[in-house]
Amino acid sequence: MTTVFGVPLAVILGQLMLGLVNGAFYALLSLGLAVIFGLMGVVNFAHGALYALGAFAALLGMKWLGLNYWVALLAAPAAVAVLGLAAERALLRHVYKLPPLYGLLLTFGLALVIEGTLFQLFGSSGDSYPVPEALRGAWNLGFMILPIYRGWVILASIVVCTGVWFVIERTRLGATLRAARENGALLQSFGVNVPLLFAATYGGGAALAALAGVLAAPVILVTPHMGSSLVIVVFAVVVIGGMGSILGAIVSGLGLGLIEGFTKVVYPEASNVIVFVIMAVVLILRPAGLFGKE
Predict the structure, then answer these.
(1) Lower CB count within 10 Å: N or C terminus of the chain?
(2) Least confident piece of the model among 58-62, 96-100, 193-197
(3) 159, 147, 274, 273: which is closest to 211 by C-alpha?
């Protein structure tokens, strides 16, 4: 039997596949953070709470309205996007001209409000969301049995991340959004509604977080604080990829998921800190991140 570092190759491949599933969530969440920071300059600490809100929207939609999983994939991100639009218009627009620390503190407070509200309404025990019928079962990959739903998570994340990258980097809309970040006053003089663009950007980032929450709901327990610890890892992913870099967020998210999975086999004790070790090394060698601009 082929071994690597004394571990059977099949075990390593299995952990890499599971790491890729985690990396899919990292990529999708860090993409939303990168979009908001890159186009608005706001460090959105409420991202983890919006992720939990998306999962709760799917769960409550199923229980109260009878919405199935496929409808929730669209309805939950749309509902959270509307909340994001309202938060941007009511709160965030007042801190754009202030140092980034003010935006971070404001979104941190927003996260506490969202998580506290969910806790008061639904408690901390959490609830489970059923895997949709069409995605139940598993594939035999030879080296592991992969649940179909986890394969779907990887596919959905890659498709969404690629689509968002294309819109931001290769379309006129993306060019307009980047121009609003560079010189909003000049762009507004040409008749473009820059405040609406900023609101739509935050709403879009919130929708990406909520979509990740819907995808995660059948995998983990839905609780008010499900995004609290994950968002710290996702911030590290964004820093490694480069703050505001769309491509960096995607590549770093998927890559770090694989590295984390490999570490769980070779040296399990380091699997919880390996992302932060890599972040420290990247910050020392390249402060702007792997794909960021100096």
Answers:
(1) N
(2) 96-100
(3) 159
